[in-house]
Amino acid sequence: MTDFSAYYPLWGRQLLAEFANINWQYGLALKTPVFEITESERQYGCWQAGTRVIRISTRLITGHSWDITCQILKHEMAHQICSELFRQNDAGHGPLFHQACDLLGLPAPYRLAAGDLPESVAPDPATNQQTEQGRQFIRRIGKLLALAGSANEHEAALAMEKASQLMARHNLQQVQEDLHSVFASLIINGKSKRLERWQHKICAILLRFFYVKVVTASLYDPLQDCLHKTIEIFGRQENVAIAEYCYAFLAGQLASLWQQNRSRTSGKGLRARNSYYLGLLQGFYDKLLAQEALTEQPRPKKKEKEGSAETNMAVLIQAEETALDSFVGMRFPRLRRRSGSGAMIYRDTYEQGRTDGGQIVLHKGVADQGGEQGLLLAHSK
Length: 381
Description:
Blueprint: H1 8-25, E1 34-38, E2 45-48, E3 53-57, H2 58-63, H3 66-84, H4 95-104, H5 129-145, H6 153-177, E4 183-189, H7 197-209, E5 213-221, E6 226-236, H8 237-261, H9 269-295, H10 309-331, H11 347-357, E7 360-367, E8 373-379
Parallel strand pairs: 1-3
Antiparallel strand pairs: 2-3, 4-6, 5-6, 7-8
Helix pairs in contact: 1-3, 3-4, 5-6, 5-8, 6-9, 7-8, 7-9, 8-9, 9-11
């Protein structure tokens, strides 16, 4: 058994920082407790009201991501709220406890007794209708987008157009059918201490065209004792899956395209490479934007009547946006938008990348658990 005792002071320091951040994020006034790292095999976390101690197990910290550790920390903070704000030491996991969890934006799977993890309570995907609908959608769009890899430019463009229409129609249908939207989130962690500008550009593509919200944040690595920059995607389960694969492919494809085309570009070193990356992604962005414009339906000339189908749909879409914003707000209640400074680039190299980016097309590639294929991207010559 590995001895992690040397890490305990470091983990305790980070738990104190996480506690302070959660306190600030959610506008609470909890007094800082004593943190103990334990070897408990029975509990992931524990709040001791008499001694004002929050215990977190080594098994949790070393066996799961720090994000899950923070969710368990919130679980114990909810017990602390019951004790010190609600003055109920024996609230258990009843209504008061759930009220405290609401104050902390704690997801339902982390509200169970003993802080059980979502993996132990998640429903079987085979019986989850929401998941199955998402799989069917990914399979359909995957079969269609396979045509977008065609060497025939017109056939590829038509496939992309139909795929865009299918994605838009699917999301509208989901908005109409789901009175209570079920959202998911996913963290992309490249184990890096900074995010490059091209990564932010991919995030902009996902946000604009893939029906998701994207947040960049930081996540602690307990075994390296450092913070890594992360990208978190929020949205409907199938949209999050598609956006994740889109990110993974674009990120992986940039280096390959740079190696293929660097001899045709001007400039040297990282500045030249990053100029090409940014241009490549801008070219892909422009292509998706043009594709979207072709598939938009013309607006009716007459003023829409109150209660019309168009008005009702607009209300549903707005409600969906509001619900998703609220879902993001549960995790990041004090989210701030930052605008980055302009990057120094080689203009010619950027424009070359932009031209090449216009050749990226969508095609079959996302695999679900049943072995079917879905959405990915490729570069066509």
